[in-house]
Amino acid sequence: MKTVIIGSQGQLGSDLWKTLQANGDKVIGLSHQDLDITNKINSRNLLKRLSPELIINCAAYVQVDKAEIKPSYAFQVNSQGSLNLAKISAELGAFYTYISTDYVFDGTKRAPYDETDIPNPINIYGVSKYVGEYLSMNSCPNTLITRVSSLFGKSGSQGKGGNFIEAIINKAKTDGKLQVVNDMYISPTYTIDAATTILQLINHKTKGLVHVTNSIPSDCTWFTLAKQTLEFCKIDAQIDAISSNNYPSIANRPIYSVLDNQKAEHITGNRIPDWVDAVKRYLMEKQYIN
Ligand SMILES: NC(=O)c1ccc[n+]([C@@H]2O[C@H](COP(=O)([O-])OP(=O)(O)OC[C@H]3O[C@@H](n4cnc5c(N)ncnc54)[C@H](OP(=O)(O)O)[C@@H]3O)[C@@H](O)[C@H]2O)c1
Predict the structure, then answer these.
(1) Among candidates 207, 86, 72, which has minimal Cα distance to 127?
(2) Do 151 and 214 contact (CB within 8 A), yes or no?
(3) Which atom of ligand 1 is nearest to the CA of 38?
(4) What predicted TM-score, i.e. pTM, was given to this entire model?
(5) pLDDT digit string (tens) for 134-173?
(6) Which end of the chain is more exposed for a tag (fewer CB within 10 A), N or C?
(7) What superfamily does domain 3-157+189-214+258-273 belong to in CATH?
(8) Using CA positions, which residue lies closest to atom 15 of ligand 1?
(9) Are 254 and 106 in contact, with CB atoms under 8 Å apart?
Protein backbone atom coordinates (compact mmCIF):
# COMPACT_ATOMS: atom_id res chain seq x y z
CA MET A 1 0.00 0.00 0.00
CA LYS A 2 1.41 3.42 -0.94
CA THR A 3 1.79 5.19 2.38
CA VAL A 4 2.74 8.69 3.51
CA ILE A 5 3.94 9.16 7.09
CA ILE A 6 3.70 12.75 8.28
CA GLY A 7 6.00 13.69 11.15
CA SER A 8 8.29 10.88 9.99
CA GLN A 9 11.31 12.21 11.85
CA GLY A 10 9.57 12.05 15.20
CA GLN A 11 9.96 9.35 17.81
CA LEU A 12 6.98 7.23 16.65
CA GLY A 13 7.05 8.37 13.01
CA SER A 14 10.62 7.17 12.48
CA ASP A 15 9.85 3.70 13.86
CA LEU A 16 6.65 3.46 11.85
CA TRP A 17 8.67 4.35 8.76
CA LYS A 18 11.25 1.62 9.55
CA THR A 19 8.55 -0.96 10.28
CA LEU A 20 6.69 -0.23 7.03
CA GLN A 21 9.92 -0.33 5.03
CA ALA A 22 10.84 -3.69 6.56
CA ASN A 23 7.36 -4.90 5.58
CA GLY A 24 8.15 -4.09 1.93
CA ASP A 25 5.58 -1.28 1.72
CA LYS A 26 6.12 1.78 -0.48
CA VAL A 27 6.46 4.49 2.14
CA ILE A 28 7.22 8.18 1.85
CA GLY A 29 8.24 10.03 5.00
CA LEU A 30 7.48 13.75 5.33
CA SER A 31 9.28 15.77 7.98
CA HIS A 32 8.04 19.05 9.43
CA GLN A 33 10.34 20.78 6.90
CA ASP A 34 8.74 18.90 4.02
CA LEU A 35 5.18 19.67 5.12
CA ASP A 36 3.55 21.87 7.75
CA ILE A 37 0.14 20.30 8.41
CA THR A 38 -1.30 23.63 9.53
CA ASN A 39 -0.96 24.83 5.92
CA LYS A 40 -4.00 23.31 4.27
CA ILE A 41 -3.20 24.40 0.71
CA ASN A 42 0.36 23.07 0.73
CA SER A 43 -0.80 19.87 2.43
CA ARG A 44 -3.46 19.28 -0.21
CA ASN A 45 -1.12 20.06 -3.13
CA LEU A 46 1.67 17.79 -1.89
CA LEU A 47 -0.57 14.91 -0.86
CA LYS A 48 -2.55 15.09 -4.12
CA ARG A 49 0.74 14.83 -6.01
CA LEU A 50 1.86 11.85 -3.92
CA SER A 51 -1.62 10.27 -4.06
CA PRO A 52 -1.19 7.80 -1.17
CA GLU A 53 -3.67 5.10 -0.21
CA LEU A 54 -2.77 5.53 3.46
CA ILE A 55 -1.84 8.69 5.39
CA ILE A 56 -0.43 8.23 8.91
CA ASN A 57 -0.28 11.44 10.92
CA CYS A 58 2.46 11.30 13.57
CA ALA A 59 2.91 15.09 13.56
CA ALA A 60 1.94 16.78 16.78
CA TYR A 61 2.66 19.57 19.21
CA VAL A 62 3.60 17.38 22.18
CA GLN A 63 4.89 19.87 24.73
CA VAL A 64 2.30 19.48 27.44
CA ASP A 65 3.38 22.40 29.65
CA LYS A 66 4.07 24.80 26.77
CA ALA A 67 0.62 24.03 25.32
CA GLU A 68 -0.87 25.80 28.36
CA ILE A 69 1.05 28.93 27.37
CA LYS A 70 0.55 28.59 23.60
CA PRO A 71 -2.92 27.00 23.39
CA SER A 72 -3.74 28.36 19.95
CA TYR A 73 -0.65 26.72 18.45
CA ALA A 74 -1.49 23.39 20.12
CA PHE A 75 -4.99 23.56 18.56
CA GLN A 76 -3.59 24.61 15.18
CA VAL A 77 -1.34 21.53 14.97
CA ASN A 78 -3.19 18.86 16.95
CA SER A 79 -6.78 19.76 15.99
CA GLN A 80 -6.85 21.88 12.82
CA GLY A 81 -3.79 20.13 11.33
CA SER A 82 -5.47 16.76 11.72
CA LEU A 83 -8.75 18.11 10.32
CA ASN A 84 -6.83 19.25 7.22
CA LEU A 85 -5.28 15.81 6.74
CA ALA A 86 -8.52 13.94 7.39
CA LYS A 87 -10.37 16.05 4.80
CA ILE A 88 -7.60 15.53 2.25
CA SER A 89 -7.61 11.78 2.96
CA ALA A 90 -11.36 11.73 2.33
CA GLU A 91 -10.91 13.64 -0.95
CA LEU A 92 -8.22 11.18 -2.07
CA GLY A 93 -10.21 8.13 -0.93
CA ALA A 94 -7.28 7.30 1.34
CA PHE A 95 -7.26 5.61 4.76
CA TYR A 96 -6.33 8.08 7.54
CA THR A 97 -4.59 7.29 10.84
CA TYR A 98 -4.36 9.82 13.67
CA ILE A 99 -2.20 9.18 16.74
CA SER A 100 -3.77 10.32 20.00
CA THR A 101 -2.97 10.12 23.68
CA ASP A 102 -3.84 8.77 27.13
CA TYR A 103 -4.05 12.43 28.19
CA VAL A 104 -7.61 12.63 26.83
CA PHE A 105 -8.59 11.09 30.19
CA ASP A 106 -8.81 12.81 33.57
CA GLY A 107 -7.42 9.91 35.61
CA THR A 108 -10.33 9.59 38.03
CA LYS A 109 -11.29 6.06 36.93
CA ARG A 110 -8.23 4.51 38.66
CA ALA A 111 -8.55 1.42 36.44
CA PRO A 112 -7.31 0.88 32.87
CA TYR A 113 -9.23 3.04 30.38
CA ASP A 114 -10.81 1.24 27.46
CA GLU A 115 -12.17 2.67 24.22
CA THR A 116 -15.72 3.04 25.63
CA ASP A 117 -14.60 5.36 28.44
CA ILE A 118 -15.58 9.00 27.97
CA PRO A 119 -12.62 11.37 27.69
CA ASN A 120 -12.40 14.40 29.94
CA PRO A 121 -8.99 15.99 29.34
CA ILE A 122 -7.56 18.16 32.11
CA ASN A 123 -4.92 20.04 30.12
CA ILE A 124 -4.79 21.99 26.83
CA TYR A 125 -2.69 19.35 25.08
CA GLY A 126 -5.28 16.68 25.96
CA VAL A 127 -8.16 18.89 24.78
CA SER A 128 -6.36 19.68 21.51
CA LYS A 129 -5.78 15.96 20.86
CA TYR A 130 -9.37 15.05 21.78
CA VAL A 131 -10.67 17.72 19.38
CA GLY A 132 -8.24 16.27 16.79
CA GLU A 133 -9.81 12.83 17.31
CA TYR A 134 -13.34 14.18 16.93
CA LEU A 135 -12.59 16.22 13.81
CA SER A 136 -10.67 13.35 12.16
CA MET A 137 -13.36 10.78 12.85
CA ASN A 138 -16.05 13.07 11.45
CA SER A 139 -14.16 14.19 8.35
CA CYS A 140 -12.84 10.96 6.86
CA PRO A 141 -14.95 7.80 6.73
CA ASN A 142 -11.86 5.57 6.77
CA THR A 143 -10.18 6.77 9.96
CA LEU A 144 -8.26 4.81 12.58
CA ILE A 145 -7.37 6.60 15.80
CA THR A 146 -4.76 4.92 17.97
CA ARG A 147 -4.17 6.28 21.45
CA VAL A 148 -0.63 5.67 22.64
CA SER A 149 0.98 6.54 25.95
CA SER A 150 4.35 7.44 27.59
CA LEU A 151 6.38 6.67 24.47
CA PHE A 152 10.05 5.76 24.36
CA GLY A 153 11.87 5.15 21.09
CA LYS A 154 15.30 5.38 19.58
CA SER A 155 15.03 8.91 18.18
CA GLY A 156 13.50 10.36 21.38
CA SER A 157 10.60 12.78 21.24
CA GLN A 158 11.58 15.65 18.95
CA GLY A 159 9.12 18.00 20.62
CA LYS A 160 10.14 17.11 24.18
CA GLY A 161 13.87 16.90 23.43
CA GLY A 162 14.28 13.21 24.32
CA ASN A 163 12.33 10.68 26.33
CA PHE A 164 11.91 9.82 30.01
CA ILE A 165 14.27 6.81 29.98
CA GLU A 166 17.11 8.85 28.49
CA ALA A 167 16.49 11.65 31.02
CA ILE A 168 16.66 9.14 33.90
CA ILE A 169 19.91 7.55 32.65
CA ASN A 170 21.55 10.95 32.15
CA LYS A 171 20.46 12.28 35.55
CA ALA A 172 21.58 9.10 37.36
CA LYS A 173 24.97 9.18 35.66
CA THR A 174 25.61 12.88 36.25
CA ASP A 175 24.06 13.43 39.70
CA GLY A 176 24.15 9.91 41.20
CA LYS A 177 20.75 10.50 42.80
CA LEU A 178 17.27 11.31 41.65
CA GLN A 179 13.69 11.76 42.82
CA VAL A 180 10.88 10.36 40.70
CA VAL A 181 7.10 10.65 40.99
CA ASN A 182 5.53 7.46 42.32
CA ASP A 183 1.81 8.32 42.34
CA MET A 184 1.14 8.70 38.60
CA TYR A 185 0.20 5.43 36.93
CA ILE A 186 1.12 5.00 33.26
CA SER A 187 1.48 2.49 30.42
CA PRO A 188 5.04 2.96 29.10
CA THR A 189 5.13 2.12 25.39
CA TYR A 190 8.04 1.27 23.11
CA THR A 191 7.57 2.92 19.72
CA ILE A 192 8.68 -0.28 17.91
CA ASP A 193 5.84 -2.21 19.59
CA ALA A 194 3.37 0.62 18.96
CA ALA A 195 4.42 0.79 15.28
CA THR A 196 4.09 -2.98 14.85
CA THR A 197 0.60 -3.02 16.37
CA ILE A 198 -0.59 0.05 14.46
CA LEU A 199 0.47 -1.57 11.17
CA GLN A 200 -1.27 -4.81 12.13
CA LEU A 201 -4.45 -2.82 12.85
CA ILE A 202 -4.16 -1.09 9.47
CA ASN A 203 -3.63 -4.45 7.74
CA HIS A 204 -6.86 -5.60 9.40
CA LYS A 205 -8.53 -2.47 7.91
CA THR A 206 -9.48 -1.36 11.43
CA LYS A 207 -11.49 1.85 11.72
CA GLY A 208 -12.46 3.78 14.85
CA LEU A 209 -10.65 4.01 18.14
CA VAL A 210 -8.04 1.57 19.48
CA HIS A 211 -5.66 1.84 22.47
CA VAL A 212 -2.10 0.76 21.63
CA THR A 213 0.29 0.38 24.55
CA ASN A 214 2.65 -2.21 25.97
CA SER A 215 0.93 -4.56 28.40
CA ILE A 216 0.96 -3.79 32.13
CA PRO A 217 1.21 -7.00 34.17
CA SER A 218 1.28 -4.94 37.38
CA ASP A 219 1.02 -1.26 38.30
CA CYS A 220 3.65 1.00 36.77
CA THR A 221 4.47 4.55 37.83
CA TRP A 222 7.21 6.89 36.57
CA PHE A 223 9.22 5.70 39.60
CA THR A 224 8.76 2.00 38.71
CA LEU A 225 9.86 2.72 35.15
CA ALA A 226 12.93 4.67 36.32
CA LYS A 227 13.93 1.99 38.84
CA GLN A 228 13.60 -0.81 36.30
CA THR A 229 15.71 1.19 33.82
CA LEU A 230 18.53 1.70 36.32
CA GLU A 231 18.40 -1.97 37.33
CA PHE A 232 18.71 -3.13 33.73
CA CYS A 233 21.60 -0.70 33.13
CA LYS A 234 23.22 -1.62 36.45
CA ILE A 235 23.59 2.06 37.32
CA ASP A 236 24.16 2.46 41.03
CA ALA A 237 22.31 5.68 41.84
CA GLN A 238 20.09 6.69 44.75
CA ILE A 239 16.50 6.83 43.60
CA ASP A 240 13.76 8.21 45.85
CA ALA A 241 10.02 7.97 45.29
CA ILE A 242 8.21 11.29 45.63
CA SER A 243 4.62 12.50 45.33
CA SER A 244 3.53 14.50 42.28
CA ASN A 245 2.66 17.26 44.78
CA ASN A 246 6.42 17.72 45.20
CA TYR A 247 6.88 18.06 41.45
CA PRO A 248 4.71 20.98 40.38
CA SER A 249 4.22 21.60 36.66
CA ILE A 250 2.34 24.15 34.56
CA ALA A 251 -0.15 21.66 33.12
CA ASN A 252 -2.38 19.35 35.13
CA ARG A 253 -1.64 15.70 34.43
CA PRO A 254 -3.91 12.73 35.06
CA ILE A 255 -2.85 10.75 38.12
CA TYR A 256 -3.91 7.52 36.37
CA SER A 257 -3.79 7.16 32.58
CA VAL A 258 -3.20 3.45 32.02
CA LEU A 259 -4.83 2.32 28.77
CA ASP A 260 -6.44 -1.09 28.31
CA ASN A 261 -4.95 -2.63 25.13
CA GLN A 262 -7.24 -5.69 24.91
CA LYS A 263 -9.14 -4.40 21.88
CA ALA A 264 -5.87 -4.09 19.91
CA GLU A 265 -4.82 -7.60 20.97
CA HIS A 266 -8.23 -9.00 20.05
CA ILE A 267 -8.24 -7.44 16.55
CA THR A 268 -4.65 -8.35 15.69
CA GLY A 269 -4.67 -11.72 17.45
CA ASN A 270 -1.27 -10.87 18.91
CA ARG A 271 -0.22 -10.21 22.49
CA ILE A 272 1.53 -6.87 22.87
CA PRO A 273 4.72 -7.44 24.93
CA ASP A 274 4.77 -6.17 28.51
CA TRP A 275 6.51 -2.91 29.31
CA VAL A 276 9.45 -4.51 31.20
CA ASP A 277 10.36 -6.62 28.17
CA ALA A 278 9.93 -3.52 26.01
CA VAL A 279 12.29 -1.43 28.17
CA LYS A 280 14.90 -4.19 27.99
CA ARG A 281 14.71 -4.33 24.18
CA TYR A 282 14.89 -0.54 23.98
CA LEU A 283 18.03 -0.48 26.17
CA MET A 284 19.53 -3.17 23.93
CA GLU A 285 18.65 -1.20 20.79
CA LYS A 286 20.38 1.83 22.31
CA GLN A 287 23.31 -0.40 23.34
CA TYR A 288 23.08 0.46 27.04
CA ILE A 289 22.93 -3.30 27.68
CA ASN A 290 23.72 -6.43 25.66
N1 LIG B 1 5.70 11.20 23.39
C2 LIG B 1 4.77 10.64 24.17
O3 LIG B 1 5.05 10.19 25.29
C4 LIG B 1 3.34 10.54 23.68
C5 LIG B 1 2.35 10.08 24.56
C6 LIG B 1 1.03 9.95 24.10
C7 LIG B 1 0.72 10.29 22.80
N8 LIG B 1 1.70 10.75 21.96
C9 LIG B 1 1.34 11.07 20.56
O10 LIG B 1 2.13 10.26 19.72
C11 LIG B 1 2.43 10.96 18.51
C12 LIG B 1 3.92 10.91 18.24
O13 LIG B 1 4.64 11.52 19.31
P14 LIG B 1 6.24 11.55 19.32
O15 LIG B 1 6.69 11.24 20.70
O16 LIG B 1 6.73 10.75 18.18
O17 LIG B 1 6.47 13.10 19.07
P18 LIG B 1 7.72 13.82 18.35
O19 LIG B 1 8.93 12.99 18.43
O20 LIG B 1 7.78 15.21 18.90
O21 LIG B 1 7.25 13.86 16.83
C22 LIG B 1 6.31 14.79 16.36
C23 LIG B 1 6.78 15.26 15.02
O24 LIG B 1 5.79 16.18 14.51
C25 LIG B 1 6.50 17.23 13.86
N26 LIG B 1 5.62 18.39 13.78
C27 LIG B 1 5.30 19.26 14.77
N28 LIG B 1 4.49 20.20 14.29
C29 LIG B 1 4.28 19.93 12.98
C30 LIG B 1 3.55 20.56 11.93
N31 LIG B 1 2.86 21.67 12.15
N32 LIG B 1 3.57 20.00 10.70
C33 LIG B 1 4.30 18.88 10.46
N34 LIG B 1 5.03 18.24 11.39
C35 LIG B 1 5.02 18.78 12.65
C36 LIG B 1 7.71 17.46 14.71
O37 LIG B 1 8.71 18.13 13.97
P38 LIG B 1 9.59 19.29 14.71
O39 LIG B 1 10.21 18.62 15.90
O40 LIG B 1 10.55 19.69 13.64
O41 LIG B 1 8.61 20.37 15.07
C42 LIG B 1 8.12 16.03 15.07
O43 LIG B 1 9.01 15.47 14.12
C44 LIG B 1 1.83 12.36 18.68
O45 LIG B 1 0.57 12.40 18.07
C46 LIG B 1 1.65 12.51 20.18
O47 LIG B 1 0.59 13.39 20.49
C48 LIG B 1 3.00 10.88 22.37
Answers:
(1) 72
(2) no
(3) 31
(4) 0.97
(5) 999 999 999 999 999 999 999 998 888 899 999 999 999 9
(6) C
(7) NAD(P)-binding Rossmann-like Domain (3.40.50.720)
(8) 157
(9) yes
